[in-house]
Write a structure and sequence with these properties.
There is one protein chain. The protein has a single domain, classed as Aldolase class I (TIM Barrel, Alpha-Beta Barrel). The chain is α/β, with parallel strands linked by helices. The protein has eight helices and 13 strands. The strands form three sheets. An eight-stranded parallel β-barrel has the order 1-2-3-4-5-6-9-12, surrounded by six helices. Strands 7-8 form a two-stranded antiparallel ribbon. A two-stranded antiparallel sheet has the order 10-11. It is globular, with a radius of gyration of 17 Å.
Length: 272
């Protein structure tokens, strides 16, 4: 995959990591624009290639009364507005084959959720749109097995594919990141570390996923040191009241200091 082929992506010659960041789900136009404006400001200063992330709907929920979205086309139009307003590419996840063509009309990157990355028809549908495809490694999959998911995309005639590690299940209610998997998956495609989902604590008795946002700095720094190509960070200006995954999101007020330190670390890693 070539970063400079992603529409509107800036700073691709900076030799910095690239960033997929934004809220877990699109809650409203105001919240999406507010988050995007701040992240664009930070990433332009630090010369980080930036892709705005937001789910237009959430399908993998623990409870039937969990927030799933504000309406598919309404949320997708907000993603398009973010892209047009700030001149940045966008990414959203899809869950059904029909989502691929629909979402491709509005965003630049289609993301396959970790639970669904073995669904061949879904992966192929995303690939055939011609959009960049981001394959999230299943919590139940080895790094080596992701080569087959990548091959499904390339065999469909699409070479624009990346892989994202979001941790591996450790017991019932915890995730771990095996950093040995980073160089392994980099053999198949550019590799991203999903920092915030790797700190989830799923399967809580309440039916609401927990998290360890206090460990975001640690996991992100370890990812940069391990040589990841990009980072994935969900962020919100009010995580406690976010409608989805608030327990593991980064408070937006801390993003600038985190990315500043990670950029400095990346410069050191680049010298090796």
């Amino acid at each position: 995959m070539k970063l400079d082929l992603i529409p509107r992506l800036k700073h691709t010659d900076s030799n910095n990591f690239f960033l997929l960041a934004g809220p877990c789900a699109i809650e409203s136009e105001d919240m999406a624009l507010r988050i995007a404006e701040r992240v664009v400001e930070i990433t332009n200063t630090l010369k980080i290639p930036y892709i705005f992330k937001g789910s237009f709907k959430k399908a993998n929920r623990s409870r039937i009364d969990s927030f799933t979205g504000i309406g598919d086309e309404k949320a997708l139009k907000i993603l398009k507005k973010v892209s047009d307003t700030f001149d940045v590419p966008t990414v959203t996840d899809i869950h059904e084959n029909s989502d691929a063509a629909l979402a491709a009309e509005y965003v630049d990157i289609l993301q396959i959720p970790a639970f669904l990355v073995r669904q061949t028809d879904l992966v192929v549908a995303a690939a055939k749109t011609g959009k960049v495809v981001n394959l999230k490694k299943g919590q139940f999959m080895s790094p080596e097995s992701m080569q087959h998911a990548v091959k499904k995309v390339t065999d469909s005639g699409n070479n624009q594919v990346m892989v994202t590690d979001r941790g591996t299940m450790f017991g019932y209610q915890d995730m771990v990141v095996d950093f040995r998997g980073i160089p392994t998956m980099k053999q198949y495609a550019p590799t991203v570390l999903d920092v915030t989902h790797s700190l989830q604590q799923p399967n809580q008795t309440s039916g609401v996923t927990g998290g360890r946002p206090d460990m975001i700095n640690t996991i992100a720094r370890a990812g940069i040191a391990a040589g990841v190509d990009g980072l994935f960070i969900e962020t919100h200006f009010d995580p406690a009241n976010a409608k989805s995954d608030g327990a593991n999101m980064l408070d937006l007020q801390y993003l600038e200091s985190l990315l500043t330190n990670l950029t400095k670390l990346r410069q050191v890693v680049n010298t090796f």
